[in-house]
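anyone seen this seq b4? input:
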Amino acid sequence: MTIGIVELAYLAIIVAVADLEPNSILVIVNGQLPQSVEVGRYYCQRRAVPIENLISIALGPRPTDTISRQDYDRILVRTIRQHIQSLEEPGLIRCLVTTWGVPFGVGPAGPMHGMEPVIKRIQMEIEQLQAHGQDRSSQRIVELQMQVDRLKGLQTGASVDSELSMLLFGDYDLYRWQPNTFNETPPDSPFRVLMVSRLDGPTPKIATSLVDKAIAAEKKGLHGNACIDSRGIRDNSQMGQYDQSLRDLAAWLRANTGLKVIHDDGPGLFQAGACPQTAIYCGWYSLQNYVDAFEFVEGAIGFHIASFEASNLRDPSSRQWCPAMLQDGITATIGPVDEPYLAAFPLPLEFFKALFDGHCLAEAFYLTNPYNSWQMLLIGDPLYRPFASKY
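predicted toks r here
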C-alpha cells in the first residue's frame, strides 16, 4: 500500500497530538535519599508508570538545590541518556518526572578556555565605541557585550528540568536560552524536546500530594473560581502584552467556561480573603513576597509572573510564590529558579486555553513555553488533565 504525502502529514499530526501515556514517562529519583525514592515509587504506583521506568541516580545523601554543571553532565545527563538509548523503543519516552531530592538548579558552565585574548579585544572595541560617543545601550555595544558574557560563561545557569528538556540534542549553546521546538519535531524524533515536570516542594509529603490532588480533581472535575490579577497596563510594551493576555484570559474564561471569574485590573494585588475556592490563578507582580489571598481547591492550577519564585522551592518558610502556594495547597504551578526575563513565561491565555482544550499539564506547558535550557520549572503531575476533553 502506498501512503501519499497528505496521508503522511496527517499521520504526523495525529502522533504529535497523541496523549501522553504512563509508559512514555521516566521517573528520576535520588537513590541516596529514601524520601526521593518513595516519591518516585508512589508516582509510579498511582499513575501506572512501569516500575522499570524509575531511574535511581546517586545524587547525594542530603537534598541539595543545585548541581554543578560538571556533575549535571557527568551524572544526570549521561545516566538518563544511556537509559533511554538502551530501551527497545527509545522513541517511546516523551516525558521525565524529577522528584523531591533531585537538584532543581544547574550551576554555570564557567568561562571558555583560552578566550581571554578575544575577550580583551572585544572589551577594547567597546571602550573605543564609547569614547566616540556610543551609549552602552546602543545595538553594537549590546551585541559585543553579549559576546563577552557568552565567552565568560555568564548566564549559563538554568533549572535542571529545563536543561533536561534538551537531553537528546547533544551539544548546544548554554548562553541564556534555546527556543522551544516542541511543536517542530515529531515526538519520537531522536532529537526531540522532552517534557519535564517535577514532583517537589517544601516537603516530600507535599510532593506526593500533588499526584493525589490531581487524580481527585480528574475524578470529580475542577470547579471553583478563576482569579486573574492584571495591572491595567495598556501599551505596546512587553509588559503590556502580558497584561493584555491576562485580561484576555479573564474574558475568555467568562465567555467559554462555567467558572466564576474574579478579575482585578488595578495596580494592587489580591488581598487576604479575595479569592475563595480558587481553581485557576494567574497574576503579577509581587517579587518574592507571596500574598495569601487564596483558598485553593483540589486540582488548582496557577502561577505568578515574577522572578526567582522557585529558587527556594524546598524552604517551608519562604515567601516566594511557588513554595508558598504549594504549602497553601495548589496542585500545579510554574516558576523560575533565577532571573528568567518576562518573555520566558508562557502567555497566560495560551497556557490555560491549552489546558481547557484537553491537554495534560506537561503538554499545555510545552505547547506554550517559549524557552528551554533556561530558568523555568513546571511543578505538578505531568499527566494531570483537569479537562479530559475540550471544555
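Residues 1-16 have pLDDT under 50 and may be disordered. Residues 116-152 form one domain. kinda curious what u guys think
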